[in-house]
Design goal:
It is a single chain. Residues 84-106 and 475-479 have low confidence and may be disordered. The chain folds into 3 domains: 1-92, Arc Repressor Mutant, subunit A, CATH 1.10.10; 127-361, Aspartate Aminotransferase, domain 2 (3-Layer(aba) Sandwich), CATH 3.40.640.10; 369-468, Aspartate Aminotransferase, domain 1. The strands form 3 sheets. An 8-stranded mixed beta sheet has the order 4-11-10-9-8-5-6-7. The protein has a 4-stranded antiparallel beta sheet with strand order 12-13-15-14, covered by helices on one side. The protein has a 3-stranded antiparallel beta sheet with strand order 1-3-2. With 479 residues, the chain is α/β, with parallel strands linked by helices. Helix 3 crosses helix 5, helix 14 packs across helix 16 (454-465) and helix 15 packs across helix 16 (454-465). It contains 16 helices and 15 strands.
Length: 479
Amino acid sequence: MIPSIALDQTGGAPLYRQIYERVREAIGAGTLRPGEKLPSARSLASQLGIARGTADAAYALLAGEGYIVSRGPAGTQVSPQLTAPLAASRRATAPPPHASAIGSSLALPFRMGLPALDLFPRKLWSRLAMREARIFSAGRMADADPAGYLPLREAIAAYLAISRGIASAPSQIFITGGYQGALDLVARVLLRPGNAAWVEDPGYVLAREALAAAGARVVPVRVDDDGMRVEEGIARAPDARFVAVTPSHQSPLGVALSLPRRLALLAWAKAAGAWVIEDDYDSEFRYTGHPLPALKSLDLDERVLYAGSFSKVLFPALRLGYLLVPEAQVPAFSAVCRLSQWGRGVHDQAVVAAFMAEGHFPRHLKRMRGLYGARRAALASALTSVFGDRLAIELQAGGMHLLARVAGAASDVELVRQANAAGLAPTPLSDTCVAHDCGQGLLLSFTNIAETDAPGVAQVLERAIGPALRPVNTYAGRR
């Protein structure tokens, strides 16, 4: 259990930050051991006399940095993978004293996959959570629908119709444990061992690993400025059963799948009887031009399985996502859900449903788009000012991170190691590649770097990696 936590409520560091620091210190010191169970956020909030949202924010930050993991009904625990040496290492690479001057970000600067935790409407969320708890009925105490809480599925269907041009019935939507849960469900229903699956190269590492773990024969397909090279995929594996693709905002390069390639992909899927898994990654955050339509909105032959997640638009600790399946596949997916999913906790689903049904969700997305646009511009400007031509910043139309191309004797993996030692957390681009050279670069999330903090963050990064860099020529390796 978490040791006694004394919080300073006199105006010092934010309460969620104090909880985060105490838990991290306890893990580093070995007081909390890998695999040890932690109290729920609700229980912790009650023990400390704080709002549930404050405990949620602390747990979200700890989970985002890999210190703790949520096991659904089994509760939250210290990450079993966090061995004692690793715990000590993470403590050693935590932000040094000067990092407090970097700014008020709620996570290590540049860490991928986290929304702006400092900007989440925690008071509103807490109010909705308390309201849903007060109206907790006998009906909600019964077995949860394995497909998910119906009001949430209805809210998602309405949102997709308006924002993404996708017409669907709530019965076609299944609530999952994030995007990984959606992939797992697809694999259980449709995948057979040895089926070929195209994946983007470079691409989302966890998607590739999930398909491989399910028994798929993974086929890396190159990505260029127009997205996945569909013709290359057909040439390499014309009999593929699956394609995992991020068409609106490719992970990690940020490009969009062009319309000719979208149509070619759908035509091939129809002819081959293949399934396309569309991860609508970061589609909500586009800063120039009009939002791109979802690939699913063009799917006249019902070959696209559309997956979405609340981890990046709300917060990761929710562990909620959804999967929209073709109507003809609803019985098969429902049967597997009854056997393997056993439903998910109703309370969090009810809070998200209320957040969406009452109009808070689109307002939150609109606000975040504006703030992210400003943070993105501020960080890009600061990096350009500090590094000059030693970093080539690739600004795409949307997303939650920048791609900075690098050159020099050091690899991007080594540069990341040096940045980690300075309390920063970029991701090396080369780690996202499988079979093709995608060049050297740093993936830099801007979501938790306030505009006023961007110059200081850029200077810390320059001190850490600047000596290893040389001027960058325009990278043309994707073309």
